[in-house]
């Protein structure tokens, strides 16, 4: 059971907007920043969003993040077939004194 | 450009001790204030943070693994290592090493990962 809760799956058609939610607690997202990773099959995770809403250089602006209270959200606009991947949210947990991950959301582009 | 590369046994038997090393190239492990991390992913499952270590040796661990886990650093080899004792099939996973973006952020640089299978 993951500390951060994500829906196991999400889907959309090309060009659509998709959002993935991540629910946490006061000890993690309620106090600390959220991060998002994209993982393509057989590869290491890639940082998509850091500090809730910041994009590393090279990440398209189709990807955006937000945080409110104890929840974070990843939005993908102009969905493309290459966006089909697993997405994970991450935060620091003050109570556990460690990094906690969401269970991951498998995004399917129909 | 910084690169991380994991190395390990691949296949091991239950009750053995897993030893993995992460070799850092393109930068010095001791020229920074980072806590270098280990993260694993069981087949078909999600990511799980294992622990993080500073080049000084200061470390913190996932509570559920703390009794079996030892993290270490070898600055002369520019490596950090993981040792997990008494492994079982539930320790079967891809193990990644990673570096945080800043000392206070999550990870932006990951190794490619190494698969470890525990089987009798």
Query: Which of globular, elongated, flat, extended, rod-shaped describes the shape of chain A?
Result: globular
Distance between the termini of chain B: 40 Å
Largest sheet of chain A: 6 strands, mixed
Q: In angstroms, what is the radius of gyration of chain B? A: 13 Å
Uncertain runs of chain B are: none
Structural class of chain A: mainly beta
In terms of quaternary structure, the protein is: heterodimer
Percentage of β-strand residues of chain B: over 45%
Number of beta-strand segments of chain A: 9
Series of secondary-structure elements of chain A, N-terminal to C-terminal: EEEEEEEEE
**Which regions of chain A are unreliable across 5 or more consecutive residues at pLDDT < 50?**
none
Mean pLDDT of chain A: 97
H/E element order of chain B:
EEEEEEEEEEE
Determine the number of helices of chain B (DSSP H or I, runs of at least 4 residues): 0
Radius of gyration of chain A: 13 Å
| Overall morphology of chain B | globular
Task: Describe the sheet with the most strands of chain B.
Answer: 7 strands, mixed
Proportion of residues in helical segments of chain A = under 10%
> What's the helix count of chain A?
0
Greatest interface (CB-CB under 8 A), with counts per chain? A-B, 25 and 21 residues
Question: Whole-Å distance between the termini of chain A?
Answer: 28 Å
List the keywords:
heterodimer, A: 110 residues, mainly beta, three-stranded antiparallel β-sheet, 0% helix, 45% strand, B: 120 residues, seven-stranded mixed β-sheet, four-stranded antiparallel β-sheet, 11 strands
Can you put this structure into words, describing what you see?
The complex is a heterodimer of chains A (110) and B (120). By secondary structure, chain A is mostly beta strands. Chain A is built from no helices and nine strands. In chain A, strands 1, 3, 4, 7, 8 and 9 form a six-stranded mixed β-sheet that branches. A three-stranded antiparallel β-sheet of chain A has the order 2-6-5, with no helix packed on it. By secondary structure, chain B is mainly β. In chain B, the strands form two sheets. In chain B, strands 2, 4, 5, 6, 9, 10 and 11 form a seven-stranded mixed β-sheet that branches. Chain B has a four-stranded antiparallel β-sheet with strand order 1-3-8-7, with no helix packed on it. Chain B is globular. The A-B interface holds A 2, 33, 35, 37, 39, 43-47, 50-51, 56, 88, 90, 92, 96-104 and B 37, 46-49, 51-52, 60-63, 96, 101, 105-108, 110-113.
